[in-house]
Design goal:
15 strands; eleven-stranded mixed β-sheet; Structural Genomics Hypothetical 15.5 Kd Protein In mrcA-pckA Intergenic Region, Chain A; PsdUridine_synth_RsuA/RluA; single chain; alpha+beta; four-stranded antiparallel β-sheet
């Protein structure tokens, strides 16, 4: 349900107005506000409103996006890899969101950090990682630092590497496509297929191939950062990721359909395992890496 309420009386409290309009208890409304379901429009723009005791002014407008199913969702906690004060590095788990929606943001990385990181700081997302994927993410703790990282991503000064498990034998010498190029030494494949009419570039190399399951483990490095870039590039080459319910056919929900007992892959087999960049404050090179074999535990 959505509620859009124009304030006609100054001095009223947000929780009281919303509880009456939505016929909900104040406790339920307060919880929804903390989880990011309430927005306030005033002369300063539109932004989330979490403080239930906020006194409202005539002419302001409240927006309440209430979905109990969304608000009841829970996710596993992320792991703090490094706290650099003005920014931090996290290992985002499967299911956690990079960005919120108008309905809530309580399952996002930045909100979890804001509520749990000590000392308390604001959190700003500077890049995305699919909800179904896990791995390393940067979280800025000021708008200034977020702008610096955004500029670094735009100029491709940040190296990101991923480990993925795909269907098929990813033999780079045998793959044919107009959007690919075999790199020197015949180790890596360069994929330049545009995504939504925007330039996109991925480098993929084979790490291992399992003949029994007919699956390959590949390492991927991306220059651009388009939405679902790795998943789209690999799927369009005929090598969809295991557990990819968006870009794989329904038959790819199984490792090997010829086996008597199919092994269903519950999670997307994609992990962002490597980050490297020059710290925008100290100008020192920083590198973080996690064990990319961790995804096997989800298989």
């Amino acid at each position: 349900m959505e509620y859009h309420l124009k304030i006609t009386e100054s001095g009223t409290k947000a929780a009281n107005v919303l509880a009456e309009a939505a016929d909900l208890s104040k406790h339920t409304v307060k919880q929804a506000m903390q989880k990011g379901a309430v927005w306030l429009s005033n002369e300063f723009g539109t932004h989330r409103l979490r403080r239930h005791s906020r006194l409202l002014q005539v002419g302001w407008e409240l927006h309440f996006y209430y979905d109990p199913d969304v608000l009841s969702k829970v996710v596993a906690a992320p792991t703090l890899i490094a706290d650099e004060k003005s920014y931090s590095i996290w290992n985002k788990p499967y299911g956690m969101l990079s960005q919120g929606s108008k309905w809530s943001d309580h399952c996002t990385l930045y909100r979890w950090a804001e509520q749990n990181l000590q000392p308390e700081r604001s959190g700003f997302i500077v890049h995305r990682l699919d909800r179904a994927a896990n791995g390393l993410m940067i979280l800025a703790h000021s708008k200034t630092m977020a702008a610096k990282f955004s500029k670094m991503f735009a100029s491709r000064d940040i190296v990101k590497k991923y480990r993925a498990k795909v269907f098929g034998n990813f033999d780079v010498k045998k793959i044919k496509n107009q959007n690919i190029e075999l790199m020197p030494y015949n180790i890596r494949l360069k994929i330049t297929e545009p995504i939504e009419d925007k330039e996109a570039c991925s480098y993929v190399e084979l790490l291992s191939y399992d003949e029994h399951t007919h699956t390959s483990v590949v390492l991927v490095e991306i220059e651009s950062g388009r939405k679902h870039q790795i998943r789209i590039h690999l799927s369009n080459l005929g090598f969809p990721l295991l557990g990819d319910r968006l870009y794989s056919s329904s038959t790819n929900a199984h490792v090997n359909s010829n086996e008597k007992e199919n092994t269903i892959i519950p999670d997307l087999q994609l992990i962002a395992y490597y980050l490297s960049f020059k710290c925008p404050e100290t100008l020192q090179q920083k590198t973080w890496q996690i064990d990319y074999t961790d995804t096997d535990s989800a298989e």
